[in-house]
């Protein structure tokens, strides 16, 4: 019997195929479906402080809009008993998911101000989350902001949160640091129980019909696996934190690569969104088959087996790898190779 | 031992509704100012599950009209419920028929009335007793509460009394002055009410109910043999009622410690002069009497609480036996009567007393006079009260006088000294001038609560609003002090004046009411060193003369820094507390923060925190302005209120109203019959926009969309001969016109920047995007101030350019050409970005010069007809829409009446032309009678023919023969030979609800009337109450849990007749279809109904998004565009044409952009989900039905 179990931030998981934050886990019903489909843990979508604030301000704006300016209409809306503007809805989801499922629930938090990261983290812990993922989604658009300031922001946020909560905390990292390795190490040294590689920013697109900038959500493809794969392979055993691979996991092959690079868990969203939560069990089945075929006894045995530390040619993960890739590329006469 | 409940600060409406709700099982409601608040609160309480005294949640049912509400209450009462309703003014009039029934059946009930003026020579939303006096013969008890405390108390006393007496009661208090005044009072706890109410009487009420288990019948038809006796049969109940009410008042006193009498006397026990009156003014008389008595006079006031049934005995007993002269003050006018109602009753009472047992009590009265005061919330001040007492000193005091106005026509008015002031020095009087929606009023309401509930001070707040809905100013009047405040009049001498907009110094005389040495707090971009120099001369002089202490803060900066945008309320509130010292600073700040939390916690911590941040930053920016006594008075001069070229009437009458000095207008200045000139908004330069649109001629494609959508008609386009540009100001912009029909001409797009509200809808409408910077359009917003003068000059020049000639054959059925037509509806006071006004603007441009408009009461009658200035305008020839508003409920009928007249006059004209044919010439007559008036060209030609005809007729009329008579008669009606258009316009509250029966009838009449329903899907004017047009799933007032039933399909109902032209339009989605539908409706020789999607701030959108939301409404098929043209059937075609396609987006993708839908998801997520699903199904089904019908 192959041991598929894994340990992630101290959480004992049945296997490493974890659904990452996505609309699938936005509701209790969705969480239940994921558990039924074999998920060993669930990452909830992020609680966005900015969104809470925006909703709160928007509510206040429209409840006050045009009010108290005309005798016959001093307001335009009835005052409701409650508006659920705060994080309560999210906290309720944590509580309900904990109650209705038997798997670890990992909450996710995106904050803006220093104070609220801490407040919300504490409330998330109190709501019963087993772990917390810090989704430090931050675009340093201001050219005056230096890389050091950006990095400091990550470290400070983590520091404050770790000081406040006792549940394990992971950090979902951006791949856009000048020194990803150094950043990972500093986060790990600052107490991150895990690093989730990488945060995938939704890039805006242009609508050429209407000349407008539009939000564009593209589901990931397996090609995108290679960026986190490389960095997990490099970081494995170099940082104390557990590593999670997210982005680009669509098949058992992708999961295996991630584990071999050194990931404790490989997270999926696009594949599940595209083909449904049942893909967890299917991929798990394929994973087990592949391991059986090759006579692996456990995931642990496989983990990090192709990390930089354990391959014959560690330089493949560094510059030479890039040179070789370019060197080996040839135009494809019928265009099939690039059409994926 | 009486129960003294802790003080609260409440509006009168809440004081009444709180008791009414708890004493009711069934509440039927309908919105009308100023009573709507009572209905809204009841609906909200029901929605929140608040229970009545007996532990059940009352059912609150909105009705289609006040008549409907009264009917529903009647039915509820008849079947044994404890039922009530709330109303005012015209609403109460609609209840009168049922009131007679309810009283005739001796049914226990209370209606709560915020008394308001009636529409006569003009509508007024303000307070007086005209409405309730119409009901005095209905057989109801009438109990008047004069203050917030009395409103709470009399709501309870009315209820307990009606149960015992079986006579129904009107509980009356002054609209606005009492209904909206925030005051400190002791509320009634449930236990107080339970102690007052005898449950046995409730069981007796139930026992009288209709019940098939022991059936009876009521509402029989009675004959001459016994009807009369039946009327008299109830006499014992009326005779017993005063004693019953006094008994209840006595029991009430035992419970609460507050003792009332049917007639409360206040003043010198040996008074020689007494005023008799009811309502809030009586409080001021009480205080004035005390002031005068302290100075040696002997005066008093009899405050009439129980006006019906009128107890002569109780009244006479209340009068001091020493009284020699009595003045009875009525807050209403009964033209042609021997005196106003209260006066008549008092005259009767005194007269009866003289012939009866109470003779001795009235023997000394040598003078009894009646007077009118306070109509439509006209101020009633101690100065006026003193004038009345002074008048009573005369041997023959003036009778049937007025006080508070200058009647220079029939000389009824008493003179008074406006400087007379009785307010004690320890009463702090503060005034705050704010901009509508900047939060000033809300913050002041909080301040009143803080002062009223956290200190021993008594407190009062009253709020005065503008008649315009955009760029409006608010003036808050706050009083507080150690003694109870009984000052139901505006502050005349303020110790503190907050000027929350620097621009107000120029527009209003804000320091006029500043007392000597008063403190002035100014929100200003100018700092302490430059502020004084920036003040206009008038204000500089007032500051120096009155030795005012001035503080300044740049509140916008503080608010902006705190993330509050333009909400400066918190900042200014902190300043007020800091300067006034009403509480120690730290305590005040703590209390303000507490109030902020109470007000905003439901809306989220982020909002609370931003307000806190504003509080914390404020004081470091607050600075006292050093103003040496010898500071030079060299500030800017005030601009004229209206331009020099304004007509005489505008200068003499309109201008003082604009300046806030309308109270000083004498009677002789006011039109006798409510007739006013049109087109007066052009003289009121409001300059309310911070940013205005600026045209870029290089990018512009001259499509005209910005012109069409501009809600305020401030964007105009003209095509003209370029030679005219020689006179143009330097900055005037022009480009080559792109019209093949008009080659070699110039085109200009001009903005009336002083009339713009800055809504920016035009920018959204512009389809052009700069290829080098796509965010830039052919029209873009820019700061108004630097552009004001040059653009005002450009606007003046633009107006001199010729208007497009209608007769030259240009097809105005498309947007590009229609932009060139002069709108005859301009610069209305509608909300910035209003979704209704573009339709009116368009209709006025297309047919305005030959239109008569019947306008239902509502937003459109307010922005269309509220003085001082009105937007319906005239062209250079002096022609334009003739406009009138009758009522809310009768607008379709009103318009039909106009059509009947025009048709009849046309018929008379045709008949007379026939009779005069020989004299006028058959060719002339034939040309007039057979003129093709189907297009502009034909109409212009016909107008010329009729003009010529009238000249001939005028000659003929000078003769002496029969033809002269005929010519004279024909002259009277000859204008009707030019095609006239009758437009019946209004909102959904009118068309779907209160006026639906009439609208249905008028459409079915087959007459040539055009109906425009500007469908905002709520009662917008009264603050967004649900109508039958409110969509499924949307939250509105009276539908706080989300509307659970579908919107009425008004178009489908009209189409069912088969001969009515019906169109559904949405300008923001398809402007071409909008114009087409209006043009087709106009051309159709029969009734036409156009239902226009009208975005409104009650939808909870930023109005700049209105076009986008209109499009999404259509894209989701929630609002299909269609035209149903009966003429097509004759051509063998399907009369229904769909002008929009199947759904491109889900309903939620449209709905969730609007707060009216979102708020339900925020408050009741699961319920919102369920309603949203139902709404999508309804949309699908609705679309499918239309699609099938269009295919059939």
Task: Report on the architecture of this protein.
The complex is a heterodimer of chains A (340) and B (1192). By secondary structure, chain A is α/β, with parallel strands linked by helices. Chain A has 12 helices and 12 strands. In chain A, helix 8 packs across helix 10. Chain A is globular, with a radius of gyration of 22 Å. The C terminus of chain A is likely disordered. Chain B is of the alpha/beta class. Chain B folds into 5 domains: 236 residues, Rossmann fold (3-Layer(aba) Sandwich); 152 residues, 3-Layer(aba) Sandwich (Rossmann fold); 198 residues, Pyruvate-ferredoxin oxidoreductase, PFOR, domain III (Pyruvate-ferredoxin Oxidoreductase, domain 3, 3-Layer(aba) Sandwich), CATH 3.40.920.10; 84 residues; 211 residues, 3-Layer(aba) Sandwich (Rossmann fold). Helix content of chain B is 39%, strand content 16%. In chain B, the strands form 7 sheets. In chain B, strands 1-8-18-19-17-20-21-22-23 form a 9-stranded mixed sheet, sandwiched between helices. The termini of chain B are far apart. The chains are: A alpha/beta (340), B alpha/beta (1192). At the A-B interface, helix 2 of A face helix 2, helix 16, helix 23 and helix 43 of B.
- List the chains of the largest interface with their residue counts: A-B, 36 and 57 residues
Q: Which architecture of chain A per CATH? A: Alpha-Beta Barrel
Helix-strand pattern of chain A: EEEHEHHEHEHEHEEEHEHEHHHH
**Unreliable runs of chain B, pLDDT <50, ≥5 residues?**
none
CATH fold type of the largest domain in chain B: Rossmann fold
Briefly note the CATH topology name of chain A.
Answer: TIM Barrel
How many domains would you count in the coordinates of chain A?
1
Strand content of chain B: 15-25%
Determine and state the CATH class of the largest domain in chain B.
Alpha Beta
How many strands, which pairing sense, and closed or not: the largest β-sheet of chain A? 8 strands, parallel
Note the main sheet of chain B. Answer: 9 strands, mixed
- Whole-number count of domains of chain B: 5
Helix content of chain B: 25-40%
* Terminal CA distance of chain A: 36 Å
The CATH class designation of chain A is Alpha Beta
The CATH fourth-level homologous superfamily of the largest domain in chain B: Thiamin diphosphate (ThDP)-binding fold, Pyr/PP domains
Gyration radius from CA atoms of chain A, angstroms: 22 Å
């Amino acid at each position: 019997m192959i041991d598929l179990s894994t340990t992630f931030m101290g959480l004992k998981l049945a296997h490493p195929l974890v659904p990452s934050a996505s609309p699938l886990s936005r509701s209790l019903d969705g969480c239940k479906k994921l558990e039924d489909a074999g998920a060993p843990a669930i990452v909830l979508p992020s609680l966005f402080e900015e969104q809470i604030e925006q909703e709160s301000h928007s509510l206040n704006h429209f409840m006050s809009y045009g009010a108290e300016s005309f005798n016959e209409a001093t307001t335009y809306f009835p005052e409701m008993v409650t508006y659920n503007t705060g994080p309560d809805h999210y906290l309720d989801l944590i509580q309900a998911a904990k109650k209705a499922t038997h798997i670890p629930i990992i909450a996710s938090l995106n904050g803006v101000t220093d104070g609220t990261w801490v407040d919300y983290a504490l409330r998330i812990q109190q709501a019963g989350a087993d772990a917390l993922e810090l989704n430090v989604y931050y675009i340093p658009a201001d050219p005056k902001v230096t890389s050091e300031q950006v990095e400091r922001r990550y470290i400070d946020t983590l520091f404050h949160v770790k000081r406040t909560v006792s549940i394990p905390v992971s950090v979902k990292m951006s791949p856009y640091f000048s020194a990803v390795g150094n950043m990972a190490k500093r986060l790990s040294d600052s107490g991150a129980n895990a690093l989730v590689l990488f945060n995938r920013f939704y890039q805006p697109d242009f609508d050429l019909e209407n000349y407008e900038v539009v939000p564009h959500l593209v589901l990931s493809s397996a090609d995108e696996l290679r960026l986190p794969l490389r960095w997990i392979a490099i970081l494995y055993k170099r940082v104390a934190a557990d590593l999670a691979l997210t982005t680009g996991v669509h098949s058992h092959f992708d999961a295996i690569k991630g584990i071999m690079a050194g990931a404790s868990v490989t997270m999926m969203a696009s594949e599940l969104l595209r083909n449904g939560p049942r893909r967890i069990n299917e991929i798990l089945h394929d994973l087990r088959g592949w391991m059986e075929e090759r006579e692996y006894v456990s995931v642990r045995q496989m983990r990090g087996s192709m990390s930089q530390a354990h391959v014959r040619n560690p330089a493949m993960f560094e510059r030479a790898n890039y040179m070789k890739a370019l060197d080996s590329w040839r135009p494809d006469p019928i265009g099939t190779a690039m059409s994926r | 031992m009486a129960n003294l409940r802790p003080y609260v600060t409440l509006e009168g409406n809440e004081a009444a509704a709180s008791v009414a709700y708890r004493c009711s099982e069934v509440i039927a409601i309908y919105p009308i100012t100023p009573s709507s608040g009572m209905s809204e609160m009841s609906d909200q309480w029901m929605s929140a599950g608040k229970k009545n005294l007996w532990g059940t949640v009352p059912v609150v049912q909105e009705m289609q009209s006040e008549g409907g509400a009264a009917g529903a209450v009647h039915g509820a009462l008849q079947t044994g419920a404890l039922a009530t309703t709330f109303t005012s003014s015209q609403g109460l009039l609609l209840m009168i028929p049922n009131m007679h029934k309810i009283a005739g059946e001796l049914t226990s009930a209370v209606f709560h009335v915020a008394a308001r003026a009636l529409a006569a020579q003009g509508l007024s939303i303000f307070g007086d007793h005209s409405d309730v006096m119409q009901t005095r013969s209905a057989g109801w008890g009438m109990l008047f509460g004069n203050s917030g405390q009395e409103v709470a108390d009399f709501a309870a006393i009315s209820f307990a009394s009606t149960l015992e007496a079986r006579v129904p009661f009107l509980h009356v208090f002054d609209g606005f002055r009492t209904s909206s005044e925030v005051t400190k009072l002791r509320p009634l706890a449930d236990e107080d009410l339970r102690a007052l109410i005898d449950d046995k009487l409730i069981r007796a009420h139930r026992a009288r109910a209709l019940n098939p288990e022991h059936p009876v019948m009521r509402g029989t038809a009675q004959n001459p043999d016994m009807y009369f006796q039946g009327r008299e049969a109830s006499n014992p109940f009326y005779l017993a009622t005063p004693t019953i009410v006094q008994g209840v008042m006595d029991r009430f006193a035992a419970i609460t410690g507050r003792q009332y009498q049917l007639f409360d006397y206040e003043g010198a026990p040996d008074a020689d002069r007494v005023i008799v009156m009811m309502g809030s003014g009586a409080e001021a008389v009480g205080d004035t009497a005390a002031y005068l008595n302290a100075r040696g006079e002997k005066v008093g006031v009899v405050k009439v609480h129980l006006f019906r049934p009128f107890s002569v005995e109780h009244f006479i007993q209340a009068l001091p036996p020493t009284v020699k002269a009595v003045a009875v003050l009525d807050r209403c006018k009964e033209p042609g009567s021997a005196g106003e109602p209260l006066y008549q009753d008092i005259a009767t009472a005194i007269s009866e007393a003289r012939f009866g047992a109470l003779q001795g009590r009235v023997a000394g009265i040598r003078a009894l006079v009646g007077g009118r005061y306070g109509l439509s919330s006209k101020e009633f001040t101690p100065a006026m009260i003193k004038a009345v007492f002074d008048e009573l000193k005369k041997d023959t005091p003036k009778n049937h006088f007025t006080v508070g106005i200058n009647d220079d026509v029939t000389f009824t008015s008493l003179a008074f000294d406006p400087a007379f002031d009785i307010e004690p020095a320890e009463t702090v009087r503060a005034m705050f001038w704010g901009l509508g929606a900047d939060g000033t009023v809300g913050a002041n309401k909080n301040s009143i609560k803080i002062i009223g509930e956290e200190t021993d001070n008594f407190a009062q707040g009253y709020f005065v609003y503008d008649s315009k809905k955009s760029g409006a100013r608010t003036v808050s009047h706050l009083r507080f002090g150690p003694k109870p405040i009984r000052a139901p009049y505006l502050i005349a001498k303020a110790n503190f004046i907050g000027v929350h907009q620097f621009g107000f110094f120029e527009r209003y005389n804000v320091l006029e009411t500043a007392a000597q040495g008063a403190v002035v707090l100014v929100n200003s971009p100018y700092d302490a060193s430059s502020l004084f120099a920036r003040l206009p001369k008038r204000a500089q002089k007032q500051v120096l003369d009155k030795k005012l202490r001035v503080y300044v803060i740049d509140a916008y900066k503080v608010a902006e820094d705190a993330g509050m945008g333009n909400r400066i309320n918190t900042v200014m509130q902190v300043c007020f507390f800091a300067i006034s010292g009403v509480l120690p600073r730290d305590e005040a700040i703590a209390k303000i923060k507490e109030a902020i939390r109470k007000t905003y916690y439901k809306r989220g911590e982020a909002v609370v925190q931003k307000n806190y941040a504003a509080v914390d930053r404020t004081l470091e920016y607050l600075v006292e302005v050093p103003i040496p006594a010898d500071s030079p008075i060299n500030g800017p001069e005030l601009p004229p209120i209206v331009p020099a070229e304004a007509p005489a009437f505008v200068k003499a009458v309109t201008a003082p109203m604009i300046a806030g000095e309308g109270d000083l207008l004498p009677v002789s200045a006011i039109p006798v019959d409510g007739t006013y000139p049109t087109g007066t908004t052009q003289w009121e330069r409001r300059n309310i926009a911070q940013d205005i649109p600026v045209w870029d001629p290089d990018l512009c494609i001259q499509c005209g969309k910005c012109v069409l959508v501009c809600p305020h008609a401030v964007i105009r386009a003209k095509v003209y001969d370029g030679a005219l540009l020689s006179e143009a100001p330097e900055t005037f912009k022009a480009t080559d016109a792109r019209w093949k029909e008009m080659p070699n001409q110039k085109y200009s797009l001009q903005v009336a920047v002083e009339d713009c509200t800055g809504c920016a809808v035009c920018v959204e409408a512009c389809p052009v995007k700069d290829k080098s910077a796509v965010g830039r359009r052919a029209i873009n917003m820019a700061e108004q101030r630097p552009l004001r003068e040059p653009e005002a000059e450009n606007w003046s020049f633009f107006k001199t350019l010729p208007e497009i000639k209608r007769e030259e054959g240009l097809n105005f059925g498309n947007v590009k050409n229609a932009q060139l037509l002069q709108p005859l509806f301009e610069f209305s006071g509608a909300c910035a970005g209003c979704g209704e006004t573009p339709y009116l603007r368009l209709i006025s441009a297309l047919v305005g010069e030959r239109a008569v408009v019947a306008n239902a009461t509502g937003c459109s009658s307010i922005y269309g007809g509220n003085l001082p200035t009105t937007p319906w305008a005239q062209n250079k020839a002096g022609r334009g829409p003739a406009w009138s508003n009758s009522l809310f409920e009768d607008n379709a009928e009103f318009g039909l009446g106009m059509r009947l007249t025009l048709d009849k006059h046309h018929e008379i004209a045709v008949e007379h032309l026939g009779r005069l044919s020989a004299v006028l010439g058959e060719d002339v007559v034939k040309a007039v009678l057979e003129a093709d008036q189907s297009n502009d060209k034909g109409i212009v030609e016909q107008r010329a023919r009729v003009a010529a005809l009238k000249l001939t007729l005028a000659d003929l009329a000078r003769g002496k023969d029969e033809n002269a008579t005929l010519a004279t008669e024909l002259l009277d009606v000859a204008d009707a030979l030019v095609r006239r258009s009758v437009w019946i316009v209004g909102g959904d509250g009118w068309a779907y609800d209160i006026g639906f029966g009439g609208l249905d009838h008028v459409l079915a009449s087959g007459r040539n009337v055009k109906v425009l329903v500007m469908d905002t899907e709520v009662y917008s004017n009264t603050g967004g109450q649900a109508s039958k047009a409110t969509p499924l799933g949307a939250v509105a007032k009276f539908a706080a849990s989300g509307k659970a039933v579908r919107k009425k399909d008004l178009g489908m109902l009209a189409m069912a007749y088969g001969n009515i032209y019906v169109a559904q339009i949405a300008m923001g989605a398809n402007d071409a279809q909008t114009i087409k539908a209006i043009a087709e409706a106009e051309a159709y020789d029969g009734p036409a109904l156009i239902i226009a999607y009208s975005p409104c701030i009650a939808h909870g959108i930023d109005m700049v998004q209105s076009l986008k939301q209109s499009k999404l409404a259509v894209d989701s098929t929630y609002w299909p565009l269609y035209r149903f043209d009966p003429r097509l059937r004759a051509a063998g075609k399907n009369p229904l044409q769909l002008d929009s396609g199947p759904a491109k987006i889900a309903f939620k993708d449209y709905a969730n952009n609007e707060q009216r839908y979102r708020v339900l998801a925020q408050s009741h997520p699961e319920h919102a989900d369920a309603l949203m699903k139902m709404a999508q199904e309804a949309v699908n089904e609705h679309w499918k039905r239309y699609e099938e019908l269009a295919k059939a």
